[in-house]
Design brief:
Number of helices of chain B: 8
Number of helices of chain A: 11
Distance between the termini of chain B: 50 Å
Order of helices and strands of chain B: HHHHHHHH
Order of helices and strands of chain A: EEEHEHEHHHEHEHEEHEEEHEHH
Largest interface: A-B, 31 and 25 residues
Structural class of chain B: mainly alpha
Strand content of chain B: under 5%
Oligomer: heterodimer
Radius of gyration of chain B: 20 Å
Number of strands of chain B: 0
Chain lengths: 300, 145
Amino acid sequence: MMNVIETRKLTKSYGKYEALRGVDLTVKQGEVYGFIGPNGAGKSTTIRILLGMLRKDAGEAKLLGGDPWQDAVALHQRLVYIPGDVTLWPNLTGGEVIDFLGRLHGKINSSRRKELLGRFQLDPKKKCRSYSKGNRQKVALVSAFLSDAELLILDEPTSGLDPLMEQVFQECIFEVRKQGKTVFLSSHILAEVEVLCDRVGIIRQGKIVESGTLEELRHLTRTTVTVELDKPTNLKQLQGVHDVTQKDEKWRFSVDTNAVDAVMNALAPMGIKSLIAEPPTLEELFMRHYGDKHEGKELN
Amino acid sequence: MKGNHFSGTGKLLKLYLRRDRIILPIWILLALIVINGQVSFVKAMPDWQVYIAELSESPLVTALLGPVVPLNIEGAILWRGLLQASITVMIGAALTMIRHTRTEEISGRNELILGRPVGKYANLSAALLLSCGGSLLAGLLTAVF
């Protein structure tokens, strides 16, 4: 399968500040890729380079098999982009903006336009200056889902949307994926990424610190176990067990993935009354990379 | 496959015309109004020749406006109104240019367009076409008048 987005050792600095310090990204055709990281990690800079708005300092960047800087116009014909902060022309109506953006790509499918406006509950006759943040975002989303581009690059597309609209957005993404299109979704809403994305890349201080499917990433971290035991014991001595807390007979701890088997064997003779094992959420994965004080110090 | 740097200029120009549907006619007609004002001003004076002669004796006025050419009532009107009218057109054109380039950049609206199949110079050339076109139109209207 073709790689839709491919970057190797991509770097970019603004003056002395290094925004990207070697970003390696691979997004395959037909997948929904979650690009996560906190504010200022380099998400938008990466996207801007991929869109040919910024020039890279060094490294390689390939988009749909072409060079994002040289072939920008031809490539943009095949993709659609929603900026993180959507601002619109105050004296035009939402419908006019959608039509204008659609016309830049070619013909507009008017029945699809009507359907999307209905689903997102957007009034296209209102002037853009009267739209709230969420409504402006909806204008951009409608225009994105209206196009039949093969790649969607979305920079925090759901900021400002209410939970209902977020649901609609997720449905639209699933539909788009069914059609075999690729989605590059930058976000810091982890729950959303967890639901939508096939693969995830975590960026931190201009570097990709982790990437892979959610299962692969989960493998790298610990499972949280809550267990109720009959016999008194001390679990702290077990290998691969961390963060042990005890309340009466209830124990709560986290286990390294490769130690699960040994720990379960050790627990079995203790008389397990109940056992709950929770896989790590994306949030825990994320916090592991960002909450680490030692690494933070090293970088400062 | 090198994309055309100017593709999308026409569509952008259309958008700008729509955006400027109120402000554009205003600055185009402003020149006309200024000249019109001078016409009624000069024509209302029975002794305009005396007035012009007096005025043009001052070296400062001559430095700013030059000699009265041709030396008749039309010449006198142009002599007084030309600089004012062209300044209004200049300001209008410059503000239009800023409105569609720098302001768009600051507000982030240009990102919406930059991600679309639009050439690198499309925005600049559309804005330039609009302000030049507006200036030309203002000039033509004034000339016809």
